Amino acid sequence: MTEAEAIERAQKGDGDAFEALYSLHKRRVYSLCLRMTGNPTDAEDLAQEAFLQLFRKISTFRGESAFSTWLHRMTVNVVLMQLRKKSLPVVSLDESPDGDEEAPKRDLGADDLNLSGAMDRVELNRAVENLPPGYRSVFVLHDVEGFEHNEIASMVGCSIGNSKSQLHKARMKLREVLKQHRAGKAEKKQA
Length: 191
Description:
By secondary structure, this protein is mostly helical. It has two domains: 1-86, RNA polymerase sigma factor, region 2, helix turn helix motif (Rna Polymerase Sigma Factor, Chain: A, Orthogonal Bundle); 112-191, Winged helix-like DNA-binding domain superfamily/Winged helix DNA-binding domain (Arc Repressor Mutant, subunit A). The chain has helices spanning 3-11, 15-37, 40-57, 67-85, 113-129, 133-144, 149-156, 160-190.
């Protein structure tokens, strides 16, 4: 059974055809989820959610783009929606982990590099989330997922030049926002 036949049969509710599509695309979907989350367990859950979404939405596939491109976009959306819902865990800064009294004492006046790095990632994620939708999608597809501009152009439905322009504008906007954030941090330290 070819992919086109499997798609057509799956749109009519054929479970075997859907299973064939799953077998063809499961590794790619999982690896995309893993690249975006960095967590194998979350990636497995999100890949499963992406295939559930595919099962629900396969009837809306019109064939205007490659099926793999359509599935990729749907997977990205599933992961992004989950990342938006996920909140950071609350961690007490006063207690040592697991009540371990043998843990090295922290110098409370010094910068915690792990925390600074986490805060930088949070700030970067906020900056990316606040980009206009066109800038954000091209930025994520190119700089996060590693797609080339010609691939992005076909996925998003724009020209290669437009993809390059959107990426450049997204990067400039991110630099501006992060520069302002650093300047604000420096002012707080001096005060």
